[in-house]
Amino acid sequence: MSSARVNRDLADQARVQLGDAVRAFLAERTAVDSPLFDVSTKMAYGNYAAVRSIPLLMDLVSARLTPEELGRRLKTVGVPLGLVMNGLGWVLTMGRIQLYKDAGWPEKTDVVVPEDARGAEVLTWWARIMQTYRNDGGLVPGQGGTPETYEVLPDETVAEMANAALTEGAVAADGTAANGGDRDMLRRAIAELDMFEFVTHAEARDGIHHHGPYKLADGRTVLFKEFTDLQGKYMPSKDDANRLPVSRIVIALVMRDVEIRFDLFAVYAEPENLLDHVEGIAIYSDDDLHRITLPELAEIAEASVKAQRDYFLKMARWDDRTKVTHGASQYATDFHALLPLAGYSEDEVRTLWVEPFEKAAEDYYDRATGDTRLGAFEHLLGGGEPTTPPFA
Predict the structure, then answer these.
(1) Which superkingdom (predicted)?
(2) Cα–Cα distance for residue pair 337/355, rounded to 1 Å
(3) Alpha carbon distance 366, 104 (integer Å)
(4) pTM as predicted
């Protein structure tokens, strides 16, 4: 490990804040369940593999970009997948805890986990990206003095998209939009696309990203909702029949009298029915993010219904092993977005990142399906201390 790439104070700050954020996130959730497979098992499989493989991702990206430059490139709309940075924090936290629990921690304080040899370096890298990516220079929403927001866009980008929403996409008092459709059409389209992302990412919301709230001078608020990886190429059984006609969708929603906050992954609104308060809608689609109307969004969403149904039926036919091992493909897909930002081609993403991640995960199948696979969940939900293992 190169000491020049490690800032122990920053890495510890990230480690503690992520541990507290993951614990708080889990405490607000009920048991993870699925009609198809044991979600916690496939998550454990992906978490194990991630701790071993994220240093590879860091090395590939760092060969071409500093953490600060990567953070600047992330400050845009439609980056697939939107959860990539907080998702990295999740797997590093959960995977480290699980590996250390397997080694007898926290009862044993002198355990050595080989996969974590570069842990401080990886979290230093992660934290430097986040400090640039977030507008406030913080790391985790609601932790360490960081506001419960997820503001990442430059002011000029927000102003431009808000203006488009309030002109071409203005919503009247009766709910009708200037360029067609109404709030009910928007609500239905979002629900259908939410379900498509959930199903095609193996019952996870990895392709759905929210950021904001961005305050306008007149007191209104802008929230961005993004659907990315709509034409995913790295998940099992993902083929042309399960892909939508567009690669991504970005929706800018301008609202009045809505309070919005974030935790590690979720967005909360007060009142909850925030779409009833939308006064402007701007919708952007596909690789070039060109403007589309609300009826065009509804048409894309309608196409997603059959695609997600067909994919669900494919997943239902997976054998027991695939129902676990697809977790590696899913987690590798989650974090692949950093590589195109660093200039890697689709083929390079597959051969340099996705396939090595899947291969590395194979060593953890027995652990991920064993009786101790829930150790990280039990430690966090049971109030175990310290929250996360200190760096060696």
Answers:
(1) Bacteria
(2) 15
(3) 18
(4) 0.95
